[in-house]
């Protein structure tokens, strides 16, 4: 056994060295510092007559002669960090706001903006002016709070319920509206469903519908950022922030992403919005373990669970997470933000088919991240009913203004349907485009293409 372990140890070490040499040759810079390896640099090891065995992640696991299966019931749930309670009262004696009153009010306005936009756009979908919408009601603090602690060069991957991240980063109401109405200003040229925003300038990758795909992508991007900084130290170190729901964490991609991020020490902050539901599947049906946070520990990742309705707790946790993510060359961090999805999943869902209305009403009455921050600001004397009224009215006006502007804009040229698949259009693409043009010309009364830039003419070769 001893020999076998020794040979495993040697071969692991050699593999690392070979890999390292290759990296050194390619990058001409030192290897990324490995974490969690201090006491088992060479992999699994056991010294003669040792009382313990050391494996990666199980450093100094002592031999014992009492057989005992560990039971999750014997371990208390990980605590939920909170700074301000439901009444807006500070419960963390060490807490001091690190931003000015004006900056706090700005965070509040961003939360208010997405919540008002949500209500208007949800109704617009019901009126048939929009094909689809998703609101983030009840989860505004997770998005706005965490985004407010990232650097503007950090890279973001999000799911679809994080409009607060976009707003906080500078995505304008017109940007939201252009995407939602798929007009000619939509950078995605109307090819995505509504709410699949993205912004190259703000370093936010475009949202994808297939659940959890963004999580391994985030690990990969974080690895790339780390290598980039190593190759050119004049580029400031950056992190990736990756948002997803508890449902996405039930996908295999989540596990692969956390493990690769841990083993490759990638500077990524995983931010899980645990809102209790994956459409109609409640978390009770999704897992039996201690939420999503316990999984982070399982992968050897620094983890915290926070009260997601408390923007201050989210901010404090994200600030620290960013610091940790950049420590020693990089490492992943997991934040599980506990909240509740007070809305239906999307405009395609009726949540009262699978949960009691009273439960939702209860949550709305008992806790809400916007009201909580408002109470805190009122306790501090920086906010009152008049300011609230003014902020709500002006935001509503602004949303409606951008709404009607974007709704009137023309759609992208029909031609764009055939573009960007290949760098240049293939003969097949061109033939299909000609067929479409012919068809539209033959049945002009059947198709109103006046809403599209250039109409039928955009299909000319
Ligand atoms: C791979 C894949 N499977 C299923 C779906 C359908 N789907 C869309 S959203 C969703 C629930 C996701 O829940 P969660 O990650 O908790 O986010 P939440 O909607 O609660 O914010 C599901 C199952 C999908 N988009 N992609």
Automatic annotation (TrEMBL):
Q: Which Gene3D superfamilies does the UniProt record give?
A: 3.40.50.970
Claim: Lyase is one of the keywords in the record: no
* Top-level lineage group: Eukaryota
- Catalytic reactions on record: N(6)-[(R)-lipoyl]-L-lysyl-[protein] + 3-methyl-2-oxobutanoate + H(+) = N(6)-[(R)-S(8)-2-methylpropanoyldihydrolipoyl]-L-lysyl-[protein] + CO2
* Family designation: Belongs to the BCKDHA family.
User: Is-annotated flag, keyword Oxidoreductase?
Assistant: yes
The UniProt entry, under InterPro entries, shows: Alpha-ketoacid_DH_E1_comp, DH_E1, THDP-binding
Show the GO MF annotations: branched-chain 2-oxo acid dehydrogenase activity; metal ion binding
Q: Which organism is it from?
A: Coniochaeta ligniaria NRRL 30616
Q: Any idea which UniProt keywords this protein has?
A: Metal-binding, Mitochondrion, Oxidoreductase, Potassium, Thiamine pyrophosphate, Transit peptide
Pfam families given for it? Answer: E1_dh
Known EC number: 1.2.4.4
Cross-referenced PANTHER family? 2-OXOISOVALERATE DEHYDROGENASE SUBUNIT ALPHA, MITOCHONDRIAL
**Protein's name according to its UniProt entry:** 2-oxoisovalerate dehydrogenase subunit alpha
Q: Which GO terms describe its biological process?
A: branched-chain amino acid catabolic process
For the protein in the UniProt heading, the enzyme class is: oxidoreductase
Q: What does this protein do?
A: The branched-chain alpha-keto dehydrogenase complex catalyzes the overall conversion of alpha-keto acids to acyl-CoA and CO(2). It contains multiple copies of three enzymatic components: branched-chain alpha-keto acid decarboxylase (E1), lipoamide acyltransferase (E2) and lipoamide dehydrogenase (E3).
GO CC term, one of those recorded:
mitochondrial matrix
């Amino acid at each position: 056994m001893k020999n076998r372990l020794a040979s495993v140890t040697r071969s692991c070490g050699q593999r690392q060295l070979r890999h390292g040499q290759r990296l050194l040759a390619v990058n001409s810079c030192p290897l990324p510092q490995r974490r969690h390896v201090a006491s088992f640099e060479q992999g699994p090891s056991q010294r003669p007559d040792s009382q313990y065995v050391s494996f990666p992640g199980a450093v100094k696991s002592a031999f014992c002669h009492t057989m005992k299966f560990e039971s999750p019931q014997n371990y208390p749930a990980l605590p939920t960090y909170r700074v301000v309670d439901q009444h807006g009262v500070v419960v963390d004696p060490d807490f001091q706001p690190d931003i000015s009153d004006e900056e706090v009010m700005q965070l509040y306005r961003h939360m208010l903006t997405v919540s008002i936009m949500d209500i208007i756009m949800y109704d617009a979908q019901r009126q048939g002016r929009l094909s689809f919408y998703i609101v983030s009601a009840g989860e505004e603090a997770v998005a706005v709070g965490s985004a407010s602690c990232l650097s503007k060069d950090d890279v973001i991957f999000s799911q679809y319920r994080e409009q607060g991240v976009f707003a906080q980063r500078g995505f304008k109401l017109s940007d939201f509206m252009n995407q939602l109405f798929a007009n000619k200003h939509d950078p995605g040229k109307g090819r995505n469903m509504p709410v699949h925003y993205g912004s190259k300038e703000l370093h936010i990758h475009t949202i994808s519908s297939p659940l959890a795909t963004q999580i391994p992508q985030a690990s990969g991007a974080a690895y790339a950022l780390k290598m980039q900084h190593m190759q050119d130290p004049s580029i400031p170190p950056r992190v990736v922030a990756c948002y997803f729901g508890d449902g996405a964490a039930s996908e295999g991609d989540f596990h692969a992403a956390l493990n690769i991020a841990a083993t490759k020490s990638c500077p990524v902050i995983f931010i899980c919005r645990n809102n209790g539901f994956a459409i109609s599947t409640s978390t009770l049906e999704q897992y039996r373990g201690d939420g999503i946070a316990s999984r982070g520990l399982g992968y050897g990742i620094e983890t915290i669970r926070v009260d997601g309705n408390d923007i201050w707790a989210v901010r404090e946790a994200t600030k620290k997470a960013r610091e940790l993510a950049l420590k020693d060359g990089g490492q992943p961090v997991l934040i599980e933000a506990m909240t509740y999805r007070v809305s239906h999943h999307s405009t395609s869902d009726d949540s009262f088919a699978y949960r009691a209305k009273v439960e939702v009403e209860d949550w709305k009455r008992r806790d809400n991240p916007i009201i909580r921050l408002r109470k805190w600001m009122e306790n501090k004397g920086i906010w009152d009913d008049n300011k609230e009224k003014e902020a709500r009215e002006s935001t509503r006006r602004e949303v409606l203004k951008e709404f009607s502007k974007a709704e009137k804009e023309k759609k992208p040229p029909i031609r764009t349907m055939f573009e960007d698949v290949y760098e240049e259009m293939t003969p097949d693409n061109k033939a299909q485009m000609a067929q479409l043009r012919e068809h539209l010309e033959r049945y002009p009364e059947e198709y109103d293409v006046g809403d599209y830039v250039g109409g039928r003419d955009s299909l000319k070769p």
